């Protein structure tokens, strides 16, 4: 059972990135999926999540209108499309799957945004 986050990189302010969170050994359809991020010296914060029940999405105020979370059941993958990136979006991004009494975390992917 594993969650694998990928897609991070170094971009300039205003650019876009798409992060992927792929699940192995279980179906993401049965889990609520969240993206979190942690910048150096700061606490981990929730960025976006998507419900397994009805597909409802939630976004932190700081990313509302710029980030979009979505899922692809066929690929067992959840994405985080990040547009209009800002230097303050730089962090290690983690995906998290919660459901059926389990709580899984991916290994994190680094996003660096230069101004």
Question: Can you describe this structure?
Answer:
- With 115 residues, this protein is mainly beta.
- The protein has no helices and 11 strands.
- Strands 2, 4, 5, 6, 9, 10 and 11 form a 7-stranded mixed sheet that branches.
- Strand 9 and strand 10 (102-105) form a beta hairpin.
- The mean pLDDT is 96.
Give the C-alpha Rg: 13 Å
Low-confidence stretches: none
- What is the N-to-C succession of helices and strands? EEEEEEEEEEE
Overall mean pLDDT score? 96
What does the overall shape look like? Answer: globular
What summary fits the major beta sheet?
Answer: 7 strands, mixed
For the secondary structure, the number of strands is: 11
Determine the number of helices (DSSP H or I, runs of at least 4 residues). 0
Distance between the termini: 38 Å
Core attributes:
4-stranded antiparallel β-sheet; mainly beta; 115 residues
Concise structural overview:
This protein is mainly beta. It has strands at residues 2-6, 9-12, 17-24, 32-38, 45-50, 57-59, 67-72, 77-82, 91-99, 102-105, 109-114.
List the helices and strands and how they pair.
Elements: E1 2-6, E2 9-12, E3 17-24, E4 32-38, E5 45-50, E6 57-59, E7 67-72, E8 77-82, E9 91-99, E10 102-105, E11 109-114
Parallel strand pairs: 2-11
Antiparallel strand pairs: 1-3, 3-8, 4-5, 4-9, 5-6, 7-8, 9-10, 9-11
């Amino acid at each position: 059972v594993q969650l694998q986050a990928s897609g991070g990189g170094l971009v300039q302010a205003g650019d876009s990135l798409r992060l992927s969170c792929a699940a192995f050994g279980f179906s993401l359809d049965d889990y609520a999926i969240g993206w979190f991020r942690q910048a150096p010296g700061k606490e981990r914060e929730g960025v976006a999540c998507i419900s397994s029940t009805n597909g409802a999405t939630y976004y932190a105020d700081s990313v509302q209108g710029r980030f979009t979370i979505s899922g692809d059941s066929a690929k067992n993958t959840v994405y985080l499309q990040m547009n209009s990136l800002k230097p303050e979006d730089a962090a290690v991004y983690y995906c998290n799957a919660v459901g059926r009494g389990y709580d899984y975390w991916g290994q994190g992917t680094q996003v660096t945004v230069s101004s």
